[in-house]
Protein backbone atom coordinates (compact mmCIF):
# COMPACT_ATOMS: atom_id res chain seq x y z
CA UNK A 1 0.00 0.00 0.00
CA UNK A 2 2.80 2.44 0.93
CA UNK A 3 4.59 1.67 -2.31
CA UNK A 4 1.39 2.33 -4.27
CA UNK A 5 0.88 5.71 -2.54
CA UNK A 6 4.50 6.72 -3.14
CA UNK A 7 4.25 5.66 -6.79
CA UNK A 8 1.04 7.66 -7.30
CA UNK A 9 2.59 10.71 -5.58
CA UNK A 10 5.66 10.55 -7.84
CA UNK A 11 3.47 10.22 -10.90
CA UNK A 12 1.41 13.25 -9.77
CA UNK A 13 4.49 15.49 -9.41
CA UNK A 14 5.94 14.27 -12.69
CA UNK A 15 2.65 15.02 -14.43
CA UNK A 16 2.56 18.46 -12.82
CA UNK A 17 6.09 19.29 -14.02
CA UNK A 18 5.28 18.03 -17.50
CA UNK A 19 2.10 20.12 -17.62
CA UNK A 20 4.04 23.24 -16.58
CA UNK A 21 6.64 22.64 -19.28
CA UNK A 22 3.97 22.16 -21.93
CA UNK A 23 1.96 25.21 -20.88
CA UNK A 24 4.94 27.55 -20.31
CA UNK A 25 4.93 28.99 -23.86
CA UNK A 26 1.25 29.88 -23.43
CA UNK A 27 1.59 31.60 -20.03
CA UNK A 28 3.78 34.49 -21.15
CA UNK A 29 3.39 37.72 -19.24
CA UNK A 30 1.53 40.80 -20.44
CA UNK A 31 3.81 43.53 -21.80
CA UNK A 32 3.17 47.15 -20.89
CA UNK A 33 4.97 49.90 -22.84
CA UNK A 34 5.63 53.01 -20.75
CA UNK A 35 6.50 56.60 -21.66
CA UNK A 36 7.17 59.08 -18.86
CA UNK A 37 8.40 62.65 -19.04
CA UNK A 38 10.42 64.65 -16.54
CA UNK A 39 9.29 68.24 -16.07
CA UNK A 40 11.25 71.15 -17.54
CA UNK A 41 11.48 72.76 -14.09
CA UNK A 42 14.98 73.34 -12.72
CA UNK A 43 15.84 70.48 -10.37
CA UNK A 44 13.02 68.30 -11.69
CA UNK A 45 15.29 65.30 -12.27
CA UNK A 46 16.30 62.63 -9.76
CA UNK A 47 18.88 59.85 -9.67
CA UNK A 48 16.95 57.87 -7.05
CA UNK A 49 14.70 54.90 -7.79
CA UNK A 50 11.13 55.67 -8.86
CA UNK A 51 8.52 53.05 -7.99
CA UNK A 52 5.44 52.56 -10.15
CA UNK A 53 2.26 50.52 -10.05
CA UNK A 54 -0.46 50.41 -12.73
CA UNK A 55 -4.06 49.90 -11.62
CA UNK A 56 -6.85 48.52 -13.78
CA UNK A 57 -10.59 49.11 -13.98
CA UNK A 58 -10.96 47.24 -10.72
CA UNK A 59 -8.41 48.74 -8.31
CA UNK A 60 -7.87 45.22 -6.98
CA UNK A 61 -6.11 44.44 -10.27
CA UNK A 62 -2.62 45.94 -10.50
CA UNK A 63 0.81 45.19 -11.90
CA UNK A 64 2.57 45.17 -8.57
CA UNK A 65 5.33 47.63 -7.73
CA UNK A 66 8.20 47.91 -10.22
CA UNK A 67 11.17 50.27 -10.58
CA UNK A 68 11.30 52.46 -13.68
CA UNK A 69 14.71 53.76 -14.90
CA UNK A 70 15.69 57.15 -16.30
CA UNK A 71 14.20 60.47 -15.07
CA UNK A 72 17.74 61.85 -14.55
CA UNK A 73 17.50 64.94 -16.77
CA UNK A 74 14.92 67.72 -16.86
CA UNK A 75 12.65 67.60 -19.90
CA UNK A 76 13.75 64.05 -20.71
CA UNK A 77 11.34 61.57 -22.31
CA UNK A 78 12.01 58.01 -21.09
CA UNK A 79 10.66 54.80 -22.65
CA UNK A 80 10.55 51.50 -20.80
CA UNK A 81 8.54 48.29 -20.82
CA UNK A 82 7.58 45.81 -18.14
CA UNK A 83 6.15 42.31 -18.30
CA UNK A 84 3.62 41.22 -15.70
CA UNK A 85 1.77 37.95 -15.20
CA UNK A 86 -1.54 39.64 -14.39
CA UNK A 87 -3.71 41.29 -17.01
CA UNK A 88 -5.17 44.35 -15.28
CA UNK A 89 -7.62 45.12 -18.08
CA UNK A 90 -7.87 48.77 -19.07
CA UNK A 91 -5.22 50.84 -17.22
CA UNK A 92 -7.06 53.60 -15.33
CA UNK A 93 -4.51 54.91 -12.83
CA UNK A 94 -0.77 55.02 -12.12
CA UNK A 95 0.81 55.19 -8.67
CA UNK A 96 4.31 56.68 -8.30
CA UNK A 97 6.77 57.13 -5.46
CA UNK A 98 10.45 58.06 -5.09
CA UNK A 99 12.56 55.90 -2.79
CA UNK A 100 14.68 58.37 -0.83
CA UNK A 101 14.84 61.98 0.28
CA UNK A 102 15.03 63.46 -3.22
CA UNK A 103 11.97 64.26 -5.37
CA UNK A 104 11.05 63.88 -9.05
CA UNK A 105 8.84 66.28 -10.95
CA UNK A 106 6.83 64.35 -13.52
CA UNK A 107 5.22 66.09 -16.50
CA UNK A 108 3.25 63.21 -18.04
CA UNK A 109 2.89 59.41 -17.96
CA UNK A 110 1.59 57.14 -20.74
CA UNK A 111 1.07 53.38 -21.08
CA UNK A 112 0.03 50.93 -23.80
CA UNK A 113 -0.86 47.33 -23.03
CA UNK A 114 0.15 44.46 -25.28
CA UNK A 115 -2.72 43.56 -27.62
CA UNK A 116 -4.36 46.98 -27.23
CA UNK A 117 -3.69 49.70 -29.83
CA UNK A 118 -4.80 52.45 -27.45
CA UNK A 119 -2.38 54.57 -25.46
CA UNK A 120 -3.58 55.71 -22.04
CA UNK A 121 -2.25 59.00 -20.73
CA UNK A 122 -2.32 61.44 -17.86
CA UNK A 123 -2.87 65.10 -18.47
CA UNK A 124 0.18 67.35 -18.31
CA UNK A 125 0.47 67.25 -14.53
CA UNK A 126 3.89 68.74 -13.66
CA UNK A 127 3.61 67.27 -10.18
CA UNK A 128 6.09 66.39 -7.43
CA UNK A 129 6.72 62.73 -6.60
CA UNK A 130 8.57 62.02 -3.35
CA UNK A 131 9.03 59.43 -0.61
CA UNK A 132 6.62 61.30 1.64
CA UNK A 133 4.35 62.35 -1.24
CA UNK A 134 3.45 59.42 -3.46
CA UNK A 135 0.82 60.23 -6.05
CA UNK A 136 -2.03 58.62 -7.98
CA UNK A 137 -2.72 59.97 -11.49
CA UNK A 138 -5.75 59.10 -13.61
CA UNK A 139 -5.20 57.63 -17.07
CA UNK A 140 -7.52 58.28 -20.01
CA UNK A 141 -7.53 57.07 -23.62
CA UNK A 142 -5.18 59.16 -25.76
CA UNK A 143 -5.71 60.16 -29.36
CA UNK A 144 -3.17 60.35 -32.16
CA UNK A 145 -1.91 63.70 -33.40
CA UNK A 146 -0.10 63.96 -36.72
CA UNK A 147 1.64 67.30 -37.21
CA UNK A 148 3.24 68.35 -40.50
CA UNK A 149 5.41 71.46 -40.72
CA UNK A 150 6.50 73.09 -43.97
CA UNK A 151 9.66 75.17 -43.92
CA UNK A 152 9.82 78.16 -46.25
CA UNK A 153 11.84 77.94 -49.46
CA UNK A 154 13.42 81.34 -48.77
CA UNK A 155 17.16 81.52 -48.27
CA UNK A 156 18.26 80.71 -44.70
CA UNK A 157 14.76 79.55 -43.73
CA UNK A 158 16.05 76.29 -42.22
CA UNK A 159 17.14 75.79 -38.63
CA UNK A 160 19.35 73.36 -36.72
CA UNK A 161 17.65 74.14 -33.43
CA UNK A 162 14.65 72.51 -31.75
CA UNK A 163 11.07 73.53 -32.47
CA UNK A 164 8.62 73.15 -29.57
CA UNK A 165 4.91 72.68 -30.23
CA UNK A 166 1.75 72.92 -28.11
CA UNK A 167 -1.77 72.37 -29.40
CA UNK A 168 -4.61 74.26 -27.70
CA UNK A 169 -8.16 72.98 -28.02
CA UNK A 170 -11.64 73.68 -26.71
CA UNK A 171 -11.16 71.14 -23.90
CA UNK A 172 -7.48 71.47 -23.00
CA UNK A 173 -3.93 71.55 -24.33
CA UNK A 174 -1.31 68.97 -25.21
CA UNK A 175 2.02 68.78 -23.47
CA UNK A 176 4.70 70.96 -25.09
CA UNK A 177 6.68 68.68 -27.39
CA UNK A 178 10.07 68.89 -29.00
CA UNK A 179 9.44 68.11 -32.66
CA UNK A 180 12.21 65.76 -33.68
CA UNK A 181 12.81 62.72 -35.85
CA UNK A 182 15.98 60.72 -36.60
CA UNK A 183 16.22 62.67 -39.87
CA UNK A 184 17.57 66.20 -40.38
CA UNK A 185 14.42 68.29 -39.82
CA UNK A 186 13.36 71.79 -40.90
CA UNK A 187 15.47 72.05 -44.05
CA UNK A 188 14.58 74.64 -46.71
CA UNK A 189 11.27 73.71 -48.37
CA UNK A 190 10.97 70.47 -46.36
CA UNK A 191 7.73 68.94 -45.10
CA UNK A 192 8.37 67.13 -41.82
CA UNK A 193 5.75 64.95 -40.12
CA UNK A 194 5.64 64.12 -36.40
CA UNK A 195 3.24 61.75 -34.63
CA UNK A 196 2.43 61.65 -30.93
CA UNK A 197 -0.35 60.71 -28.49
CA UNK A 198 -1.98 62.92 -25.88
CA UNK A 199 -5.32 63.72 -24.23
CA UNK A 200 -8.29 64.59 -26.42
CA UNK A 201 -8.24 68.41 -26.44
CA UNK A 202 -11.47 68.75 -28.42
CA UNK A 203 -11.70 71.02 -31.46
CA UNK A 204 -8.29 72.54 -32.24
CA UNK A 205 -8.25 76.30 -31.66
CA UNK A 206 -4.59 77.36 -31.78
CA UNK A 207 -1.18 75.98 -32.76
CA UNK A 208 1.72 77.36 -30.73
CA UNK A 209 5.34 76.96 -31.84
CA UNK A 210 8.50 78.10 -30.12
CA UNK A 211 12.09 78.10 -31.33
CA UNK A 212 14.41 76.67 -28.69
CA UNK A 213 17.65 78.37 -29.78
CA UNK A 214 19.06 81.25 -31.75
CA UNK A 215 19.23 79.78 -35.27
CA UNK A 216 16.09 81.31 -36.84
CA UNK A 217 13.39 79.27 -38.61
CA UNK A 218 10.91 80.49 -41.23
CA UNK A 219 7.74 78.43 -41.18
CA UNK A 220 5.49 78.36 -44.24
CA UNK A 221 2.59 76.25 -42.93
CA UNK A 222 1.53 73.84 -40.17
CA UNK A 223 -1.07 71.07 -40.54
CA UNK A 224 -2.57 68.89 -37.81
CA UNK A 225 -4.60 65.70 -38.28
CA UNK A 226 -6.77 64.70 -35.32
CA UNK A 227 -9.13 61.79 -35.87
CA UNK A 228 -11.27 62.56 -38.91
CA UNK A 229 -10.36 66.25 -39.11
CA UNK A 230 -7.41 68.09 -40.58
CA UNK A 231 -6.55 71.61 -39.42
CA UNK A 232 -4.19 73.86 -41.33
CA UNK A 233 -2.83 77.37 -41.04
CA UNK A 234 -2.93 79.63 -44.08
CA UNK A 235 0.38 80.42 -45.77
CA UNK A 236 2.48 81.91 -42.97
CA UNK A 237 6.03 82.77 -44.00
CA UNK A 238 6.70 83.71 -40.36
CA UNK A 239 10.29 83.97 -39.15
CA UNK A 240 11.03 82.86 -35.57
CA UNK A 241 14.25 84.28 -34.15
CA UNK A 242 15.74 85.88 -31.04
CA UNK A 243 16.52 89.15 -32.81
CA UNK A 244 14.62 92.19 -31.42
CA UNK A 245 12.43 92.57 -34.52
CA UNK A 246 11.24 88.95 -34.35
CA UNK A 247 9.71 86.58 -31.80
CA UNK A 248 10.80 83.13 -30.61
CA UNK A 249 7.21 82.15 -29.82
CA UNK A 250 4.13 82.41 -32.06
CA UNK A 251 0.53 81.23 -31.67
CA UNK A 252 -1.53 80.66 -34.83
CA UNK A 253 -5.30 80.62 -34.28
CA UNK A 254 -6.57 81.34 -37.79
CA UNK A 255 -7.09 77.75 -38.89
CA UNK A 256 -8.86 76.03 -41.77
CA UNK A 257 -10.60 72.76 -40.94
CA UNK A 258 -11.44 69.92 -43.29
CA UNK A 259 -13.31 66.69 -42.57
CA UNK A 260 -11.25 63.84 -43.93
CA UNK A 261 -13.12 61.51 -46.25
CA UNK A 262 -13.10 57.89 -45.12
CA UNK A 263 -14.10 55.19 -47.57
CA UNK A 264 -16.40 52.46 -46.24
CA UNK A 265 -16.99 49.59 -48.68
CA UNK A 266 -20.60 48.51 -49.09
CA UNK A 267 -21.64 45.01 -48.26
CA UNK A 268 -22.11 43.01 -51.43
CA UNK A 269 -24.58 40.18 -51.15
What's the story with the biggest beta sheet?
6 strands, antiparallel
Strand segment tally: 21
Shape: globular
Mean pLDDT rating: 88
Quaternary structure type: single chain
**Gap between N and C termini:** 70 Å
Q: Helix count, per DSSP?
A: 1
Spans of at least 5 consecutive residues whose pLDDT stays below 50 are 19-27
State Rg.
25 Å
Q: What would you say about this model in short?
A:
The chain contains one helix and 21 strands.
Describe the structure.
The protein is mainly beta and 269 residues long. It is 8% helix and 45% strand. It contains 1 helix and 21 strands. The strands form 4 sheets. Strands 1, 4, 6, 7, 8 and 10 form a 6-stranded antiparallel β-sheet that branches. Strands 11, 15, 17, 18, 19 and 21 form a 6-stranded antiparallel β-sheet that branches. Strands 12, 13, 14, 16 and 20 form a 5-stranded antiparallel β-sheet that branches. Strand 6 and strand 7 form a beta hairpin. The longest helix has 22 residues, at 2-23. It is globular. The protein starts with a helix and ends in a 10-residue tail after the last strand.
